[in-house]
Amino acid sequence: MALIRKRKLTEQQQRRIEKQQQNRQQEFDHSLDLEGLVVQHYGRQLEVEVRSLPSVPPTAPQAIEGEPEPFWREIIVGEVWRCHTRTNLDALVTGDKVTWQADPNTGLGIITALHPRQSLLSRPDRYHKLKPVASNVDLIVIVFAVMPEPSAMLIDRYLVACHSADIQPLLVLNKADLLADDDSALKLLEDYQKLGYDTCICEAHANNDSPYHPKFLIEKIDNRTVVFVGQSGVGKSSIINTLLPDAEQRTNIISENSALGQHTTTSTRLMAFGDNGALIDSPGIREFGLWHLDREQILAGFREMQDYFGLCKFRNCTHQHEKDCALRQAVADGKILSRRLDSMNRLLNELNA
Questions:
Q1: φ, ψ dihedrals at 22, nearest 5°
Q2: Contact 234, 145 (CB under 8 A)
Q3: How far apart, in whole angstroms, are the C-alpha atoms of residue 26 and residue 343?
Q4: Which among 74, 313, 343, 307 is positioned nearest to 191, based on CA atoms?
Q5: Residue 300, class by beta-carbon neighbours within 10 Å (0-12 exposed, 13-18 middle, 19+ buried)?
Q6: CA distance 206 to 175
Q7: Buried b or exposed e, range 106-145, using 16+ CB within 10 angstroms
Q8: How is residue 62 annotated by DSSP?
């Protein structure tokens, strides 16, 4: 039988092992707790911004003559650390406020607790499983443009999702420089404005004197945590790059063949904006399923129809072909947009399917 020789450890390695064991024993020592904000998600790891310092500052190891200088990372408010999370915690997302502990000997941290969320934006994935997108969001900026051709159905989906999550929406028409060629996008914006939604017209690359410069968005989003959503290619990242030049968000061009946007943002990312605000850019999506909502939640997302529910002749009216349908009559009277009723029925049909 072969003998296994025990490897001799250097004094520095022994101290490091002892330090790691000590850290495991002290993992419930709340004097090491830090407050943090999740700014990006990478599979099993997350990036957390330091929001506070430990009550007992850790002591850096002393370098010993003749040995390599030990690694040490200072904890500084505002810097971002790569962190793991405890297995007993709920799935974390960008925007989560957390308690965590840092290990300056490795430059890594571990998230120990999740703070209560004020709001949570979720969407089903391709497997119909509910996937959280961002938390503690104050405002959802729904961006659309002349190109790619805007999808009113997708916008309606976003608005229903906003209502369900109790998050205020803001509709932004980007690429204002193209409006001279096609005013249908402007008409779409005006339709939502008449429904009482807050709106804005923008041009990401406009000069400072232009009335469409993104700086006019600031008064609507200042000191708020804002998530940008919309079709790929509508210019979400370009707007963020203008508002935050240091964001270095990647941008791309519209595919000439498909006229659909190219996916440029690959993970939801939070960037500080102003003193107390933040901007969140999410991966571009062309569909936004609402299969996790029930019938009443979908109906509640169409604000202009609330006064007509329950007025149809038939109690189980589908609002598609029945006689004496209050909603279809409202469409005929010009009080409800036909395409909005179509959107609602399509969402209900998807729910039944």
A1: -65, -40
A2: yes
A3: 55
A4: 343
A5: middle
A6: 9
A7: eeebbbbebeeeebbbbbbeeeeeeebbbbbbbbbbbbbb
A8: P
Q: Which residues contact 161 (CB under 8 A, 6 or more apart)?
A: 121, 123, 140, 288, 290, 301
CA 242 to chain centre: 19
Report how far apart, in Å, the C-alpha atoms of 147 and of each of 152, 169, 259, 282 are.
13, 21, 7, 19
User: Which tokens belong to 165?
Assistant: 């999550």
β-pair partners for 279: 226, 271
Residue pair 37/96 in contact (Cβ under 8 Å)? The answer is: yes
**pLDDT digit of tens for each residue in the chain (353 aa)?**
333 333 556 777 667 766 655 555 455 577 889 999 999 987 778 999 999 999 888 888 888 887 888 899 999 999 999 999 987 888 899 999 999 999 999 999 999 999 999 998 887 777 777 778 889 999 999 999 988 889 999 999 999 999 998 999 999 999 988 887 668 899 999 999 999 999 999 988 888 888 888 878 888 998 999 988 888 888 888 888 888 887 655 444 433 444 444 444 457 788 888 888 899 876 644 456 687 889 999 999 999 999 999 999 998 899 998 899 999 999 999 999 999 999 999 999 988 77
Q: In 3D, which of 167, 185, 166 has the Cα closest to residue 175?
A: 185
Q: What single DSSP character describes residue 10?
A: P
Instruction: Enter the DSSP assignment of 94.
Output: B
Nearest CA to 114 out of 132, 130, 100, 101 is that of: 100
Sign of CA pseudo-dihedral 173, 178, 182, 183: positive
Per the listing, tokens 């003559």 go with: 65
Say what the alpha-carbon torsion angle 296, 302, 303, 305 is, to the nearest 10 degrees.
Answer: -90
